[in-house]
Design goal:
The complex is a heterodimer of chains A (about 325) and B (about 70). Chain A is an alpha/beta fold. Chain A has one domain (about 40-285): Aldolase class I (TIM Barrel), CATH 3.20.20.70. Chain A has helices at about 80-85, 100-110, 125-135, 150-160, 175-180, 185-195, 215-230, 255-265, 280-285, and strands at about 1-5, 15, 25-30, 35, 45-50, 65-70, 115, 140-145, 165-170, 200-210, 235-240, 275, 285, 295-300, 300-305. In chain A, the strands form four sheets. An eight-stranded mixed beta sheet of chain A has the order 5-6-7-8-9-10-11-12. A three-stranded antiparallel beta sheet of chain A has the order 13-14-15. A two-stranded antiparallel ribbon of chain A has the order 1-2. The N and C termini of chain A lie far apart (about 55 Å). By secondary structure, chain B is of the alpha+beta class. Chain B has one domain. Chain B has a two-stranded antiparallel sheet with strand order 2-3. Chain B is elongated, with a radius of gyration of 25 Å. Chain B starts with a helix and ends in a 10-residue tail after the last strand. The chains are: A alpha/beta (about 325), B alpha+beta (about 70).
């Protein structure tokens, strides 16, 4: 009898024949059982600044141990980490690293938190889950940097160990998700809502790609959805696109487009809107939404000044969304 | 020239008949192949013994989480 397996981790719900891998290249059907081939095999481990994730409202100016395994359940034509996200696991010779070793590594490098990032942490789910659990047991915090393409049940299981997340909202158009990412938009919106509901510190990133998702109405729709469904205090990052992978024919996003996007999002009521992947002083800083006092001044990934006192504005005492200690 | 054309025609006919036969055989056989689909959300870890073109995977025992067992 032929034993197929339907993987129900992500909305792709791949049906796998014997020895066939899913779209993520991570999950495989062997003898009618689902196995993950990258478990314990991170292909990248780095200590990054928190601001690189980007997370601007979570433990600012602290280092974060960041890791990834090969594979992703999206196939974005603009992927900046395509060499690892779109690779086959056998292409990278990696050492087996137990989850507890990841936690110990973070402690050794004086990192208060661990980020699951670079590729897609929800595709190497089991390793993310076990590392998160091990990190929490050692008193560390966990950060997801993800495209948010996962089914509801496994995501809820994982969220209990997650403290902060930066989720890509690549566009507010189903067509964009279908043609550029080979995915769909709706499950991503669901993931964003679940994250906010779970009281995880949430920041959203939108990579602005010239001609594909940079129209004023695209930005306005996306910002409005974030303001209405996630809250006006949800930080939103507009990142500069740089020609990569299968999209080398498009130019980098002009700074003016990003400044305009920031203005549109602010007009929709969003209180913390940032410009990333490019140096822009005002677009990198955090201002008090009430009295407009400069709270955090940044330059690139560096925090120059942090005036937040007990999570509040020092001048008007307005509570600022985030985890500051 | 004419012989060559005839020869090509014969080959084309042969290929066509082969495809038709294979399709017919498939139509007869496929409904008799038993297929079952198992739904699974969590995957067990595989442990790599040696990395050579993805062929040498080995099952890991005693994996620690909810997908173990």
């Amino acid at each position: 009898m032929k034993q197929l397996v339907q993987c129900e981790l992500c909305p792709r719900n791949c049906i796998l024949d014997e020895n066939q891998k899913g779209e993520c290249r991570i999950r495989i059907n062997i003898g009618g059982k689902l196995y993950t081939v990258t478990y314990g095999h991170p292909c990248s481990i780095h200590v990054d600044p928190m601001e690189k994730k980007p997370l601007y409202h979570f433990l600012p100016a602290t280092p974060i141990l960041s890791l990834a395994t090969v594979g992703c359940n999206f196939h974005c034509k603009n992927c900046q980490n395509w060499e690892i996200s779109q690779a086959e696991p056998y292409q990278y010779e990696t050492e087996f690293t137990e989850p507890v070793e990841i936690a110990n590594l973070a402690i050794h490098h004086k990192c208060p938190s661990v980020a699951y990032t670079y590729t897609e942490p929800l595709a190497y789910y089991e390793y993310t889950y076990d590392c998160c659990k091990a990190a929490v047991e050692k008193g560390l915090k966990n950060v997801l940097v993800t495209a948010g393409y996962i089914n509801e049940e496994p995501y809820k299981q994982l969220l209990q160990f997650v403290h902060a997340a930066n989720i890509d909202l690549k566009s507010f158009s189903e067509e964009f998700y279908r043609t550029v990412c080979d995915g769909t938009l709706k499950p991503v919106l669901k993931t964003l809502e679940l994250t906010k509901k779970a009281a995880v510190e949430l920041e959203v990133t939108n990579l602005v790609i010239p001609t594909l998702n940079d129209k004023d109405e695209d930005i306005q729709k996306l910002s409005n959805w974030v303001a209405v469904n996630l809250g006006k205090d949800t930080p939103l990052h507009f990142s500069q696109f740089y020609p990569q992978y299968k999209m080398t024919h498009l130019p980098p996003t002009p700074l003016e487009t990003l400044i305009k996007a920031r203005q549109i999002a602010q007009n929709e009521g969003l209180q913390f809107v940032y410009i990333g992947n490019i140096i822009h002083r005002e677009g990198s800083n955090t201002y008090c939404p009430s009295c407009k006092t400069l709270l955090i001044e940044r330059y690139g990934f560096n925090v120059l000044t942090n005036n937040i006192v007990d999570g509040s504005c020092p001048k008007c005492r307005t509570k600022i969304y985030g985890t500051w200690k | 020239m004419q012989n060559k054309n005839l020869w090509n025609l014969e080959i084309s006919r042969g290929v066509f008949l082969n495809v038709v036969c294979a399709e017919l055989l498939g139509i007869v056989l496929i409904p008799h192949t038993k297929i079952s689909i198992v739904r699974q959300t969590y995957a067990k870890p595989l442990f790599r013994v040696k990395i050579t073109k993805g062929k040498n995977w080995k099952k890991i025992s005693g994996s620690p989480a909810l997908w173990a067992g």
